[in-house]
Specification:
6 copies of one chain form a homohexamer.
Chain A (H helix, E strand, L loop, with lengths): L6 H9 L37 E2 L14 E6 L13 E7 L4 E6 L5 E7 L2 E6 L6 E6 L4 E4 L5 E5 L5 E7 L7 E2 H6 L5 H8 L3 H11 L4
Antiparallel strand pairs in A: 2-3, 3-10, 4-9, 4-11, 5-8, 5-10, 6-7, 6-9
Subcellular location (chains A, B, C, D, E, F): Secreted, Extracellular space, Apoplast
Pfam family, one (chains A, B, C, D, E, F): Cupin_1
Protein name (chains A, B, C, D, E, F): Germin-like protein
Chain lengths: 212, 212, 212, 212, 212, 212
């Protein structure tokens, strides 16, 4: 069929005015207050390809630290293009013996893929407290359901690298040790609600910089 | 395992910059326009424990009125901390003979717990119009599905107290009598769409302050 | 039951202050940036009946064009009253031989009702690529699942009119031809990712005003 | 690019085994119990084009009745193809003077398009009870937010026809009169919760076949 | 308006056949496997008023135990009527000194109302680990966002009673101590992922019945 | 605090009976019909750690084919553990010159991370048809919004490997070429709805095994 210049292109386009149209995506305008569903959208006219890609996970994180691990995030705050799209990702580098301490993600499930090395990972179910443990090698994947405590450990002899995706733009991160010991949560209260010995609590508060 | 001062605490925290991070909760900034998912969030730096608690349901409502009942709400407008969290609550005080007139909640289901007294409650299903009635005593609970007409009556000899929770921050409230008689809904239209006698309509408009 | 003036009306109303209350609806304030859940709400005090009705689909669209068809939308951008309500609609006019070219709606399913004429419509499933075709006459309806390619053709001898509703305020619209040929998508890339001949690509880019 | 026979087609298809694949749609298997998200899906191998189209709205409903109106539904029960797709539709025929009595849809918003005639329609907001009324002519549309009482009346001199879409597969239907008078809702309770006169209640129970 | 016997009642009812109609609610059929959205629905013909009320929270729980507290649930498993309705509730009895140990609800936010006594409650935010503490008296309410660790303690001199509602039919329950010590989570792993001393771990495993 | 054997463990556990408890996760029972929200859950008593991990993405896919690429999925059908968790993943192997042809995912957004090699990727927006292109190197990520056409090409000189996550358990896959040419979509219809030349259509139908 013969289509003359420009006729076709204007038919539908003109009927769908630019303003208020683009909700294919909603690149976060981080300068505005977020809402429960995410950030307001940046004007589409200011959106470029660079908003949909991110280079920040390309470099190995610095694992020269006590847990011999690093987590490099690409959540909405770092990668505004994921705003409203229900997906995000972080990079995990674990040196030999490295540990991602026990933690939860209140807002989404996690899917881990091992790129290098060997990782021992696990989570605990609620109510029945069943422990689900797996040793994961290169190319293996594991899923950690939303809100349940889980961890990863480099159980191999070489550095490990993994990527963890989440089914939400920001799953949240609650590290159990930090919640208990790295703030001003009164020691006697921590003792009452966890049955941990006061000495244990004070010790970990001491090393994590907690007070009270 | 020995953890030197401050090392651990900065590892993960620094990787998750404060800005754009906190979506654990979203205390409503009521000064900004709401969105379909709720209000924009107040800055986390301005959030305190007081944002998550509310004292307004502590006092008995004033039941010295015609329905001998009072409803005291803690929805998003009164309790901004529930914004985005999918939950809210109201306090119901019913004096002897008190009545919460027939109404619906367009946006959420209701779960009532009786604290004192005896309450006769019920709802009507859609399509088939089955009436589900229960007499509830202290400690009993009843659920009223979203959008269906329901009511509560104090059917005992003492004042009744109950709390009603909703699975949303603001379930809406449509009192059937108010929708029909407490506005400028033209009498002849009300008659046509409800088959209520004009005299009945005018009478109730008169007492409720409706016009037209 | 006798109800004195004004007593009843103030009981519940006063307990539900106007501000922050009305989330029955959320007429879009198109002057503000949208969020993933829709636009911020216009102040309820400025909302009138006119916000909930729209006259723009009353006139037949201009089908004197190459596809002999017109689509007149009432999505959130044109009809702000649908904001947050999960529904929208467009009017389709197809002259004899008219065609709505192959397209998808990334964000919602479509339900078409034929008002006049005869329409041949179809969609293709994902993974298995099954083609589902139907010839629809006056009063017939057809549903097109979210995100799947579909089309409508006037297969009769008289003009056709249909309305297509969507289960979302703005389903998006991706016309396959426009995505391939009506922009600056490099010809060699289009060839690589679709296996279409370069000559075919250049031809359609030429007529649709695409470049590169 | 030259593509030999069959090579390409098997690459991706084989990697996506048929079983468990098709969630593009989920045609309802009405012989199985529904779940909160809809019905279980019929086997894709048994799905045909006929599952996605429906002829039941093609005929004018019988309006020779007391309300001089008819509603012909294409919800999930009648049109299993909409299961899981978030959309459904009904046909409204209103003879001269016809009325769709005051009702709500607990589960979804409604979008009405007038095909023939003139319809006076309106809804009432919750909390503040504002009445939003419009007179709609051919081609006009109006939206009725989820859960709010609304009605339609043929306010013209000729029969009226309209289609009403919903942003859900089954929005529910609660006709206020039926909920109050067309069941065994005890008269004294109706009186207490609506303030309608006992005589009025008995009269309407009488005509609608209610008891008690 | 005069309405003859039965005419009106059949108009709309007949057009909405009983089967497949009732999705106002979906009382759980606990004999069938659940789905991600809840349980399949019990046949509406077998649903009675008793499905929507529950008496199990009327009695004080037995607090003669080590934590001097009891939690009595009315989640979907105990109260099938809440299935699909997005709401549930539990009763909390705390004797003097009673404690609900540190825990999370992976699937929903919690809203607590104090009925008797004085409760000290708090939660910790993710990422920044801010502790939000409040002392709650009779009639006070507090909200605990989904997935975050929280606790309640009876900080008064008399028994405390509270009800906690959730914006979901089953929010899940992960008690941190149980997840760490009341199963076969290997001690050396617990030590690695929490930095708790082996002695502390073994001690609490011992008292909670954990192994390994 | 001293905790005697077993006392604590039974307090809360007994109050939360096993049945109907586990909705932390919902491992798919693929032998049962799916529902719009996913598959029914396998009994928790039959769930093991192996349900949460998957080894199928560990091996490089076979790229000795015409597109010099392979996609290995871990969606719900292959990895039942992701059922209800809102996440899934696939492995992409692209040999030199390899191509993932233009396609969409109707049900979810995609987040790609490049593990090896160089990938040129892009998507096209709806309505305005803007092309967003990026060249991605090792460690780079890119997001492709739900429902929009996109592609990936190995633009480097070595094999490329990437993982693509989705914010849903099965995002669907519609390959545009397959939808047009690899089925029995009548040639004349394809011509009418895409304006592709009949010769082009017949050619690609020929190589893809399409008919009609």
């Amino acid at each position: 069929m013969y289509l003359p210049y420009f006729f076709l292109f204007s038919i539908l386009l003109a009927l769908y005015p630019s303003s208020a149209l683009v909700q294919d995506f909603c690149v976060a305008d981080l300068s505005l207050p977020p809402t429960p569903a995410g950030y307001p959208c940046k004007k589409t006219s200011k959106v470029t390809s660079d908003d949909f890609a991110y280079h920040g996970l390309a470099a190995k994180g610095n694992t020269s630290n006590i847990i011999s691990a690093a987590v490099t995030p690409a959540l909405d705050g770092q990668f505004p293009g994921v705003n409203g799209l229900g997906i995000s990702i972080v990079r995990l580098d674990l040196a030999v013996g490295g540990v991602i301490p026990l933690h939860t993600h209140p807002a989404g499930s996690e899917l881990l893929v091992v790129i290098e090395g060997t990782i021992c990972a696990g989570f605990v179910s609620s109510f029945e407290n069943v422990v689900y443990l797996k040793t994961l090698n290169k190319g293996d994947i594991m899923v950690f359901p939303q809100g349940l405590v889980h961890f990863q450990i480099n159980s191999g002899k070489t550095p490990a690298l993994a990527f963890a995706s989440f089914g939400t733009q920001n799953p949240g991160l609650q590290i159990i040790d930090f919640a208990l010991f790295k703030n001003d949560f009164p020691t006697e209260l921590v003792n009452k609600v966890t049955f941990l010995d006061v000495a244990q609590i004070k010790k970990l508060k001491g090393v994590l910089g907690g007070t009270n």
